[in-house]
Amino acid sequence: MGDLIHLILSGTATGAIYALAALGFTLLWQAAGVINFAQGEFVMLPAFAMLFFIAVGAPLWLSFLLTCAVAMVVLGYGFKRVIVDPLIKHGVIPLVIATLGLSIAVKSIVRAGYSAEAHPFPSAFPAGQLSLGGIAVSYADIGTLVLAGLIVIGLQMFLNKTVTGRAMQAVAQNTDAARVLGIDVKRMVLYVFLINAVLSVVAALLVTPTYLAKFDMGDSIGQKAFFAAIIGGFNQTRGALLGGVLIGILENVVGFYVSPAYKEGVALVLFLAVILFRPEGLLGKAEERKV
Amino acid sequence: MNRFERLAIAALVLSAATTSLAQQGPVPIFGLMELSGTGATAGTNFDNGVKLAVKEINAAGGLLGRKIEYTAMDTQTNPGVAKALAQKAVDSGAYVVMGPVFSGSIIVSMVETKRAEIPNFTGGEAANITQQGNPYVFRTSFTQSTAMPKLAKYIKDGVKAKSVAMIWVNNDFGKGGHDSMLKALEAQGIKVVADVPTDPGQVDFSGAVLKVKQSNADALFVYTNEEESARALRELRKQGYDKPIIGETTLTGQKVIELAGDSANGALAHVGLTVDAPQPTIKAFDEKFQKEYKYKSDHNGMKGYSAMYVVKAITEKNKKLDPKEFAKALHGAKISAKEYPGVLLDVSFDQNGDLDRESFLVKVENGKQVVTATLPPASAK
What we know:
The structure holds two protein chains of two kinds.
Chain A (H helix, E strand, L loop, with lengths): L1 H31 L6 H17 L4 H29 L3 H23 L14 E4 L2 E4 H23 L1 H11 L1 H6 L4 H27 L5 H16 L4 H21 L8 H12 L14
Antiparallel strand pairs in A: 1-2
Chain B lengths: L2 H22 L2 E7 L6 H20 L8 E7 L4 H13 L4 E3 L4 H13 L4 E3 L14 E3 L4 H14 L5 E7 L2 H16 L3 E8 L7 H10 L3 E5 L2 H13 L6 E4 L5 H7 L7 E4 L8 H14 L5 H20 L4 H8 L3 E2 L11 E3 L5 E2 L2 E7 L2 E8 L6
Parallel strand pairs in B: 1-2, 1-3, 3-4, 4-5, 6-7, 6-8, 8-9, 9-10
Antiparallel strand pairs in B: 10-14, 11-12, 12-13, 14-15
Helix pairs in contact in B: 2-11, 3-4, 5-6, 8-9, 11-12
């Protein structure tokens, strides 16, 4: 039983990281109708940006804050203005292709600059373990859970309790109606891109000590986050959370009780099952779109 | 002399000049290297080692007075790509082919170099590479069937473990090592109480480590590639694993230490080559490599570097650039580090292409490999 609890706790910590990236998928989809297939690279780039700031002497916390600022400009504002705005009027498919291309381009650039080798990344949390009722849990897992949990709760509160958050939700639900109500739609959409950039930086901070900073580290994260968003419901932020955590826990449990060889297939099997039996996702709502 | 005769003579002269130029031109050597994908760390190091040796050899006059033209090609750690690139190297008239470093790739790609009768050096350690009757494949490191018995003996006599848990990577390299180690442990009477395969490129080792902890083995044997070794070490420390962690070469490699940070401290390994060995030839290599690349080489860098000096030694012995003669001469050859410091340690090759030389037992202390013992070559016993 102790093993199972340990697996669930560490799986939840891993899943929380997937959830952060998955949240980006759902937020962008709801607010701007964008599926960003470079989401994994949006996690990889901040990892290298933080390494750059660390290399020039900044401590990890300052590197994180500086990277948040840079990411908001480049991955938030820049991504929206340079790629999304010109292409969105042509529909979803050109944008999907553009983000796939962006993903390849970003990986190639980072590989050329930093080489294809992995680079170490410092952990934001101390080494060691805490014994909770006889179950040893690492500080890294606890820290990840707490930080990711705070971010998610904070985001939910922002979306539900503040005027700006509600305006953003209104834009997500019906852009035209939101515009009629006097909401600055463009600004709300920009906020979503900025939030997505910050979520990516947090995910990078939490995941890179384990994944190691490498040009292709975003492949796996992007894929898991996409699956998590589909599993939970692409049009529900809570769904992304559920999907991420579910994948994290099931990967751990299957890896331990069945075989580590099947671990990587867990997300795919769940994804297929959801697509077949509940295409809108576990918490998602069926929606219709004009084509 | 009519117009046709003049043209024929001109063609003959041109042909002779071209042949002469080709004979005097650079010596083409190709590298099939894992410059991306899961083997990027190993391939990049091996490639850098080769390049450093080529630079030095060319500065000293080249091979029999001809410069080496080294071309590295990226296999992407993909055996299919490696095979296609081996064909390209053959078509380009390679004198010698270096790499791939990964066992899974060389097993596939060496078919092409064997067919073309071109010597092919590999960093792969899987035992079956040199057990297929290929007279053109040569190792740059120990075969697993040489290394594992040394390590199993150390686990019994040095670590005094009676039971062992194993974490290994499920590819040709890992499976070969796993099988060789199982035999070696059995021969020493050591029981394997947990046998945990992992995937190449695996990121999360929490389940694997939990299984190892649950087995309560006296020691853990880790046999994975560089990045996975670092992740495994990090997870082991994260979960507070406190039994001896033992590996073969990769586990305490320089890149693994860099990636694993403090988590690498305490790890033990048998290594064929390490820049921390006390030999003056190795110290000199370490300095030159760090000066060139601004980082410390791992064993793969040393493998690439020493292999290129083996090429120099055998070519000079043969006094001609003939790939077939090269392969013949290398079987059964002994090369002295005194005569050719670039080979780093006295080395001998058997009829299968396996090499033999001194090796080392190391422990990671404060982020550095510390050599705790030097073991004699297997043939010296």
